[in-house]
Amino acid sequence: MTLPRQPMRPRLPLWLALAGAALALFAIGVLRRPEIAGDPETVRRLEAALLWHGLLPRAATALLAGAALGLSGALLQRVLRNPIADPSTLGIASGAQLALVLALAFAPGLLAFSREAVAFAGGAGAVALVVALSWRRGLDPVTVVVAGMTVALMAAAASAAVVLARGEYVLSVFIWGAGSLHQQNWNSALVIGSRLVLGAIAAALLLRPLAMLALDDAGARSLGVALTALRVLVITLAVGLAASVISQVGIIGFVGLAAPAFARISGARTPSEILWRAPLIGALLLSLADGIVLATATGSGDLIPTGAMVGLIGGPLLLWLLPQVRPTVPPAAAAADGRRRARPGRALLLLAGCALVLAALALTLGPGPDGWSLATGDLLAGLLPFRVPHVVAAACAGALLGTAGALMQRLTGNPLAGPEVLGVGAGAGVGIAAALILFDMPDRGTQMAASAIGAIGAIAFILAVAARTGFGPERMLLAGVALGATCLAILAAVFAAGGWNTFLLLTWMAGSTDRVDPPEAVLLALATLFLLAPLPLLGRWIAILPLGAPVARSLGLPVAAGRLALALLAALMTAVAAFFVGPLSLAGLLAPHLARLLGFAGGRLFPAASALLGAVLLMLADFLGRTVAYPYQVPVGFFAALVGGPYLIWLLQRRSGHA
Amino acid sequence: MVRAAALWELDGVGVHAGGRRILAPLTLALEAGRVYGLIGPNGSGKSTLMKVLARQLAPSEGAVRFAGEALGRWRGRAFARRVAYMPQFTPPTDGMSVRELVALGRYPWHGALGRFGATDAAAAEAAILRTGLERLADRAVDGLSGGERQRAWLAVMLAQLKGGTGARCLLLDEPTSALDIAHQMELLAIVRELAADSEGLTVIVVLHDINLAARTCDHLVALRAGHMVAHGPAREMMAPKTLKSVYDLPMGILPHPVSGHPMGFVL
């Protein structure tokens, strides 16, 4: 009865029509090319050069890159049994981009050696991280994409930090980062084409074991499939295909997602059908998108890069695919450690004491030109106006994110559901970006308003999607991921436009408390108090809702209203924190895990402890970010991701021993 | 006292989903203070019927009345004080102790903001005693054995129903499916006592084992492919012809060597 409804099946004529449309768009693009002035002979030769070395290779690249991405996505979806896996939802694209940014900034020689290898290393690293994070939950589709989103955000924040640190030098990467298909020769087409041929042969050889993956792990294994080896092999192949595309033309999201989906819709059922149709459809899709970009191009260049264009179409598509995703793991909080605190109230007070001591240290202690010193008296009085806003911002944002994370994890029963993946942070970013584009030099107030509008729009969107399932947790997570991915694509397009505005957005993306001034700190503190105040009243709902809708309803609790209240609160907290410290800090993901590890479990104590721990974490990150590389500042978000990411993996792996 | 109408009145209650009929229109009255067993093969609509009674699922047609009042007209918490439901699969409890879990059962009484008072504490304590969990009260629920965990959830329901006036009802969806025979007997013995003692609870329980159902219940309601094929006192239901109509298997009946209760077996 949960069978997805059979959508209409586009037949051959439709595909031919689409191919015709792609051709027509390309033709329009060719015809609308700018006039070249000069004597007829030169013009003729220039035009020929433009056609043979610019437009035709571009068309070929679009076809081949689309095919490669389609195959890559089909392979990933097959091997992870996840209908929304693709290079962008698994963080492969962002990982590859981070690797390229790092290489460009610190070891340009590596790029000269092989861009593709660097991109592959980054993509493989990202996918390894995602698999490691979701391994304990049996690669459950929802968990995998949530982990992928977290990794993608981590990589994006790190890229932003590197770009900020190395200035203009790396900025050019961002133009590439949004997937421009501009070509000067046939190189890209040849590189991608050769990889595509190799990949297709390998996929053909792997067809039979891939078919076995329709069974669950135990079933496949009992039929003699070397499961781990097969997984590693197929994922390597898929990452390789994606990396070659990314190294040549940059991030083009969603083609890998859409192509296999359309293949299924068009009636492909067996793995072999999907695997050969997906590349064809991918080629068609990317050609269509690029055709639109080409046909709308102005004299000075494309309006938006093709990758961003695809991203804009891809988000809604992802949303449409959501009903096909069925979680394989019933929602369940991480297995209990069994450790309980005997006197949780006292432990909470102790924690609050620690937070205060840390705040005092952050205000007074710091490195100066002649080593570390504890500021007192007049010096302290002089420093306080600078340091207080930072510390307040870090503490408040940390508390908000920690609480939001605790609520999200309780609500969804998914240990990887940080507030970051709600897409609210990325929505705030799009708001800021819009302000930067619409107004020349917007002030902080305008930016704040724009970010609030973006975040509220994102919240409304997620809740509207989730409302259809009575605010079911999976649907909400997936809607958040879809929205986040779309917003990241939009941000990539803005980065590609360049300009000084980009730096503002980059600072925000990397996460920092630098620009918080005293009035803003007061505002943030008030907002924090206002948002945390209802928590003690919601304690019982927070305790009962995680037991699932049947139990909650049986106890007479208004399930949909309860979920809505908690989700709205978490989203608002994330939105406020996102404006001040950026879209990612991992504090929201880590603090609840720490709270549980320390033995806080009750409906009131758990969020309270998460809030305190979040505040401690961000104050620590802020303090370290300010002092480690003194006199330079390392962005808070970057620092938190650097420390928090590995710790989170360790934490989740450690628990697998218990389960 | 005036003899009131039946506790549960079902009037042409049916459920469709995705164009398929899961429960054919069913008309039935269930009296207070008895133990009713729902039996039938897999996919016969037992769990669906339980969900309708528990207000987890709105019926596609027909009307259900509890204590003379249509289900839709009951307020959430007021209904929860009278009817407690244990789903077929009890959820993980994230490190909660037995006592904390049972205390959650008092939600219908104190609500989101009310104080967890002495009455509530006493009700929770009594429920723990009733289910014999006093020695395990501070242990984590997730760490208990299957039988102990089912008793903990039963204690939640008892705490939920404790106090107030009027007939109350327990809805148990296959509470014994994951238990060994000793724990099945233990749990069902508690259920039997609950119906027999001064509390006089009404129990509706889904059971797979026909002999266990006949032993535990006063009354059996048999479903097959969404239709009610038979219902009546447990002893009368234990007849070869009736059982064949329920399970579509040739079955025979023997008296229990000690108690003399009828027992079904496959021919």
UniProtKB/TrEMBL annotation, chain B:
An annotated GO cellular component: plasma membrane
Bilayer disposition of the protein: Peripheral membrane protein
Top-rank taxon, per record: Bacteria
GO biological process, any: iron ion transport
Keywords: ATP-binding, Cell membrane, Ion transport, Iron, Iron transport, Membrane, Nucleotide-binding, Transport
InterPro entries in the cross-refs: AAA+_ATPase, ABC_transporter-like_ATP-bd, ABC_transporter-like_CS, P-loop_NTPase, Siderophore_ABC-ATPase
GO MF entries: ATP binding; ATP hydrolysis activity
Gene3D superfamilies for the chain: P-loop containing nucleotide triphosphate hydrolases
Subcellular location: Cell membrane
Similarity comment text for this entry: Belongs to the ABC transporter superfamily.
Pfam families: ABC_tran
Principal location listed in the UniProt entry: membrane
Protein name: ATP-binding cassette domain-containing protein
Residue ranges occupied by any ABC transporter domain in the UniProt entry: 2-250
CDD domains membership: ABC_Iron-Siderophores_B12_Hemin
Species annotation: Xanthobacter tagetidis
